[in-house]
DNA sequence: GCCATCGAGGCAACCGGTTGCACAACCTTG
DNA sequence: CAAGGTTGTGCAACCGGTTGCCTCGATGGC
């Protein structure tokens, strides 16, 4: 099988500790010995076993990244940014998908606990209480959720939602449908909070919904029936599903109903009509989260990133 | 810190080996003792350290899954299917993205080697030789690549490409552009092979290209200039980029040029015109790959999955 | 009543590394 | 030339489990 530290030690007539030091503390070993060891190691194809090393040092140089749904185009850019950032710091990132299931999420975290030095939790579906409990075993950085005393990367959803509502108000919309996401989503709560506090609006809530096209498609009939002239959707996928659903009922967007999404994903840009949306800084969030995880002694720094409204073609003057 | 097996042993007055057996060979321990141990373990929040266990047993119950680009919508369904299948067999899957870079790919495989029981290699960019070398250290299943003696899950690209070309021929197309993918892609080679062997066609090759919208956009001018009335693109993303690029030059699809992609991803279904494409069975591939990896003693079984042509709106009669 | 059998659990070596400490050889310095 | 300092390496304990082997007491058959 693969060569171990012992094989190398034997093959060059030194003690294993010398081989070990050659790799983890090169300055402690005589240059001549070192190069001999390196030569033999290379010859045997030796590579330190990271799991074994982690056992004594307590450091794995791995990070975990847990997302609710990889197939949501919002996540891949965040994942890639996080991986790139981690790679620059000599870390590797293991990604896992929870399928939007809190039980799977917990299970994954427990599995990851001893195999990584920290976990990035993206848009978690677990309760705050559970996350706090799990945080005793492994450092976390949470993305898109505010939990007291825990490092977090937030996107300013409230601000974005405010801009979106303002934009709709400017276009003359008063009765607005709010199509929320899944239970346990912080983003969803933020949106609802802002909307509820905005004066002069006539809101209709729909939720919880699956955060996918399917979710959007499913509520389309109800939204159409409720008399709203505009919709604020949980995310772009829901918005796209909604538009598809409305189109099937021959309700034009934005002529009859205006639609705004969240995230600014690629399919939204390619869609006809091009989607008006609140852009979320996914790459920056991925990078920041890694930095926070690696630098922080675990104390709860919180970073809030800005969002911006991007007006395209799916919003227009209110239909009377 | 987290409780270890020793803490549990001490707290219930038994030897560590008894605690160990309680978890890994329950039938060897007295039911009364076992339940006492379980109670104490639960109380202390003990969970076996998987890395430590792996050190002696040689099994981690983890699988690695390496893809070239997570943000290509083709992969997420495959990833999810693989994860679900693995979960059913008590395995966990760690996903990593190589950014289409063979060096990163190699690095990732080496890192993963000792931390997983096997690796699923999706559309690798490494050379066959290198993959064979790495396979000495960890079992592989390769997806979308044929390597002698190595278990593989293939999709019948040749058959799909044949159907696509036939479809185009039926529509009267003779001069056809072949927009290939990145260097090192087996899929790309298969496509070219079939096309070259199909009689009666007038082929123009373009490549290598980035396997993304950007890649498609970039070749659009050349494709437009080459006089072809139809295009077979490396994948749907390239096809979409191409259509976008042609649209910018006011060249209508399918009126002036017909376009066929590969994969059948969601954005292709939402696009106007809806994309004609060769559907690849991504979920089935993910599941099969996991099965192959877990069951096979490593001997090179190869599974080939069927592809199908899905005719939508991006292909039409040849423009004279 | 004796011996073979069996179930339960302890002992200790081992997986592949890391690291504090000891020690020997060599080098300074006064 | 003795005292004190460096440098390079070996020794052995340790990380958190697993597992082959052994012991011990209880049971059962004859």
From TrEMBL, chains A, B:
Pfam families: LacI, Peripla_BP_3
Domain HTH lacI-type: 3-57
Gene3D superfamilies xref list: 3.40.50.2300, lambda repressor-like DNA-binding domains
Keyword Magnesium: no
UniProt keyword list: DNA-binding, Transcription, Transcription regulation
InterPro entries documented for this protein: HTH_LacI (IPR000843), LacI/GalR-like_sensor (IPR046335), Lambda_DNA-bd_dom_sf (IPR010982), Peripla_BP_I (IPR028082)
Molecular function GO terms recorded: DNA binding
Descriptive protein name: LacI family DNA-binding transcriptional regulator
Record organism: Nonomuraea antimicrobica
Phylogenetic placement of the source organism: Bacteria, Bacillati, Actinomycetota, Actinomycetes, Streptosporangiales
């Amino acid at each position: 099988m693969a060569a171990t530290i012992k094989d190398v030690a034997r093959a060059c007539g030194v003690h294993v500790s010398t081989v070990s030091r050659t790799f983890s503390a090169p300055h402690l070993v005589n240059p001549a010995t070192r190069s001999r060891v390196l030569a033999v190691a290379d010859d045997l194809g030796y590579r330190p076993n990271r799991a074994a090393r982690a056992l004594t040092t307590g450091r794995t140089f791995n990070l975990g990244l847990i997302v609710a749904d990889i197939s949501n185009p919002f996540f891949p850019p965040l994942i890639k940014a996080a991986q790139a950032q981690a790679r620059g710091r000599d870390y590797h990132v293991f990604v896992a998908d929870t399928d939007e299931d809190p039980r799977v999420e917990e299970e994954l975290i427990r599995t990851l606990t001893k195999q990584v030095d920290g976990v990035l939790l993206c848009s978690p579906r677990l309760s705050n209480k559970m996350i706090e409990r799990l945080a005793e075993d492994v450092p976390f950085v949470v993305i898109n959720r505010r939990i007291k005393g825990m490092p977090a990367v937030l996107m300013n959803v409230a601000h974005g939602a405010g801009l979106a509502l303002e934009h709709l108000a400017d276009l003359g919309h008063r009765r607005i449908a709010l199509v929320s996401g899944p239970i346990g989503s912080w983003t969803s709560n933020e949106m609802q909070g802002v909307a509820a506090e905005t004066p002069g609006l006539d809101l209709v809530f729909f939720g919880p919904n699956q955060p996918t096209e399917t979710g959007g498609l499913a509520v389309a009939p109800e939204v159409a029936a409720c008399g709203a002239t505009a919709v604020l959707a949980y995310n772009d996928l829901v918005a796209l599903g909604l538009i598809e659903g409305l189109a099937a009922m021959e309700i034009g967007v934005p002529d009859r109903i205006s639609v705004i999404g969240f995230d600014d994903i690629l399919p939204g840009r390619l869609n006809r009509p091009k989607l008006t949306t609140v852009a979320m800084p996914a790459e920056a969030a991925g990078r920041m989260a890694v930095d926070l995880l690696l630098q922080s002694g675990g104390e709860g720094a919180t970073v809030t990133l800005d969002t911006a409204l991007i007006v395209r073609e799916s919003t227009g003057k209110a239909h009377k």
